[in-house]
Amino acid sequence: MADIVTMPKLGFDMAEGTLVRWVKAEGETVNKGEILAEIETDKATVEVESSFSGILHKQLVEQGAIVPVSTPIAVIAQPGEKVEDIPGSAPAVKEEKPTAPAEEKSVQVAMSQVVVTPVGMVKISPLAKRIAAQNGIDPRSLQGSGPGGRIVKRDVEAALLSPQLTVPTAAPAQAAEPKVAAPPLPVWQSGGAVMEDQRIPVDKLRGIIGKRMVESKQNVPHFYVTHEIDMDAVMNLRKQINALLPDEQKLSVNDFIVKAVALALRQFPGINASLAGNEILRHGRANVGVAVAMDSGLITVVVKDADIKPLRLISAEVKDMVARARAGKVRPDDIEGSTFSISNLGMYDVDEFSAIINPPEAAILAVGSAKQVPVVKDGMIVVGTRMKATISADHRVTDGAEAAKFMQALALNLEEPMRLMI
Fold first, then answer.
1. Which of these, 123, 188, 336, 347, has the minimum number of CB atoms within 10 Å of its CB?
2. Residues 6 or more apart from 260 whose CB is under 8 A from it?
3. Rounded to 5 degrees, what are φ and ψ at 297?
């Protein structure tokens, strides 16, 4: 009997996805666990594995189609099997045509990375458009190598290396808007030149991040607790461990933090929780999300059961998931199921900050830099390594006392890091 593949639901709030690319063609053999297609969600482009083995009998949607979750997208049959009653194709929207070309706006294909602009109808990804704008490159002069002729990052980078780099021509002026002479440049401007304003369309990921964060700040009563942690022992232990490991397996400070957080979550189930309607759901698993900076925004990769995994495995998993995320090859399991999140800006020399909770989670940890500072020890001023971390928590789910105790437990795990090794 033929199997029907449907658009997967890759998040609690996902309603639809874009089928970016078919990896398997019609008539091609598909084994269970093989990559069938690439789906773009609100969070990232995800590689979707097949749950069935057989022959890809029919693709029910085209590349670029926007498909509601649970809608059939393909039929997988056995060799020689006669397939009847094939489901109809899913509704798809490939692009929207501007109704008022004279307006200064861009029309973005829903849930895809193709941006269609009124001038020249150029297909270009948000990242490529931003790089082009920053370097004065006219997208109309580029040849796209992405799906459907889309201009992608590598096309702009290739143009930057070309000696025949073109500068964009000015868009035609609006007939109803008279030109106003620019005022003379101030003497203090460097080199007598001035940077022009740039209008950069908000891409899908940035738009979704903005929407979710506004909803979180408006609807979730945040409160914050900051704790300063003595990182001397962690830094010394990390140095000893990394001396024994090859470069590609060395541990980061963040690996220690992930493990320390997961162990603390065991002790404080009210922090490892979510609000589900009129109930508080206390999670049995400690799945720690790690925020990853992308060119177009943030996504969160998830270390499942981080409380029972050794540091080296946590480190390896995070490295693999981050690499896939930045290559646009995220797997569904990489980004789903977090019960608590970490946002670490320590690599940017940040003292401390507060993060916005990622619903439906009850809390998020914001991590600053581990810095050498003067500290008082046994009545003497000495050099110590300190790191500030701030928990943002949902007051509907937990309270200040529990959050403070959680931060004490986290600090103890990092200040006595052998706890992380046993």
1. 188
2. 410, 413, 414, 417, 419, 420
3. 145, -155
Residue 226 has a pLDDT of 98
For 230-280, give the DSSP string.
Answer: E-HHHHHHHHHHHTTS-GGGPPPHHHHHHHHHHHHHHH-TTTSEEEETTEE
CATH class of 3-77: mainly beta
For the domain 114-168, what is the CATH superfamily, name and number? Answer: E3-binding domain (4.10.320.10)
Locate 264 and state its tokens.
């603390």
Q: Please tell me the distance from the alpha carbon of residue 238 to that of residue 257, in angstroms, as a whole number.
A: 12
Tens digit of pLDDT for each residue in 173-227?
A: 444 455 555 555 555 555 556 778 888 887 766 777 788 889 889 899 999 999 9
In tens, the pLDDT along 88-106 reads 544 444 444 344 443 333 3
C-alpha 230/C-alpha 378 separation (Å) is 15
Question: How confident is the chain (422 residues) per 10-residue block, as mean pLDDT?
Answer: 84 76 91 88 78 91 87 90 66 42 34 33 69 77 74 77 49 47 53 75 75 88 97 97 96 98 97 92 96 82 96 96 86 90 95 94 97 94 97 96 98 97 90
C-alpha span between 59 and 89 (Å, rounded):
9
Task: Assess whether 395 carries a catalytic annotation.
Answer: yes
Contacts by 76-82 with C-beta closer than 8 Å and gap 24+? 76/2, 76/3, 76/5, 76/30, 76/50, 76/52, 77/2, 77/3, 78/2, 78/54, 79/54, 79/55, 81/1, 81/2, 81/54, 81/55, 81/57
Residue matched to tokens 């790089």: 131
The predicted pLDDT at position 67 comes to: 87
Q: Look at the block and give the residue holding tokens 């232990």.
A: 237
Query: In angstroms, rounded to a whole number, what is the distance separating the alpha carbons of residues 408 and 227?
Result: 8
Given the residues 222, 227, 283, 395, the one annotated as active site: 395
CA 20 from chain centre, in angstroms, equals 17
First to last CA, the chain: 49
- What is the SS3 assignment for 413? helix
Whole-angstrom distance, CA of residue 365 vs CA of residue 140? 44
The reported pLDDT for the residue numbered 349 is 94
- Take residue 263 and report the two structure tokens written for it: 């162990």
Return the residue matching tokens 């007598």. Answer: 192
Hey, where are the domains in the chain? Answer: 3-77, 114-168, 204-421
